[in-house]
Write a structure and sequence with these properties.
Order of helices and strands: EEHEEEEHEHEEHEHHEHEH
Number of strands: 12
Strand content: 15-25%
Distance between the termini: 29 Å
Helix content: 25-40%
Number of helices: 8
Largest sheet: 7 strands, parallel
């Protein structure tokens, strides 16, 4: 069953209306008709099975059939901060990271980032990223669409308030460090937030690591293997799910 996000709250007796791209997807792509059912997620993360009542030339009207009661979200808020990588790796992180439960994505300009952010293409680029995470959230039956920020500097990134702050650092992995990620995931409580920072292809510079450590970030290894910049965030999100959803 398809899932669609509505940027408003549910109000009893008010019609539930789908327009725009979602209307096109429902009517033109999925060929839905009256009496078909879809999931709808409202702005406050309330979700329900709905039935199509009417289809007009530019809108679909729905009615509630049954409210969903199960949760699909991680018990903690995970923000992934990625040093700008090459090619479409960032889009892969956004898509798969959304499927794995990330709450927010913050790209940043790292010392070793080869790609440089083009302000002229910023609007088009961020719109594409937002579409990627929205579609991934629909596919994975999320209750929220993760926020995607425009790229920031590392100094801007460290000003973000989080209860836990980690940095995936390959030198820690080479040195055999394997306790810090586990320690944080054992200590963190439901509802709390964590920011995890990942470098680009060349990793983070020593200067960046020193700055992050001075701001309270805890460096950690992600096992004995050195992971690619697009793989490491998915490893951490999987570890979060295992520790906080499967083990608790």
């Amino acid at each position: 069953m398809q899932r669609y996000f509505i940027n408003s709250l549910y109000r009893e007796n008010d019609p539930i209306i789908i327009t725009g791209d979602d209307y096109h997807h429902m009517v033109r792509v999925m060929r839905m008709k009256e009496e078909d059912e879809v999931f709808v997620v409202f702005k406050d993360q309330a979700s329900a099975i709905t039935r199509i009542e009417t289809i007009s030339s530019d809108a679909v009207e729905l009615s509630i059939v049954q409210w969903e009661t199960s949760t699909k979200e991680l018990p903690i808020k995970v923000t992934i901060a990625s040093g700008l990588p090459k090619g479409d790796k960032l889009e892969l992180i956004f898509q798969k990271g959304t499927e794995l439960g990330a709450t927010r994505f913050i790209p940043f300009n790292a010392d070793r980032s080869i790609v440089k952010w083009d302000d002229k293409k910023a609007k088009k680029k961020t719109e594409r990223w937002e579409k990627i995470v929205k579609e991934a959230a629909e596919q994975s039956h999320r209750l929220l669409v993760p926020e995607v920020s425009a790229p920031v500097s590392l100094k801007q990134l460290i000003q973000e308030p989080f209860e836990y702050k980690l940095v995936a650092y390959e030198e820690d992995a080479r040195a055999g460090e394997k306790g810090n990620l586990s320690k944080v995931l054992t200590s963190i409580e439901p509802g709390q937030s964590i920011l995890v920072v990942f470098g680009p292809e060349g990793g983070l510079s020593e200067k960046e690591i020193e700055l992050l450590r001075s701001e309270g970030f805890l460096t950690c290894g992600l096992g004995p293997r050195i992971l690619r910049t697009e793989t490491a965030p998915l490893y951490v999100l999987s570890a979060v799910s295992y520790q906080l959803e499967l083990m608790r």
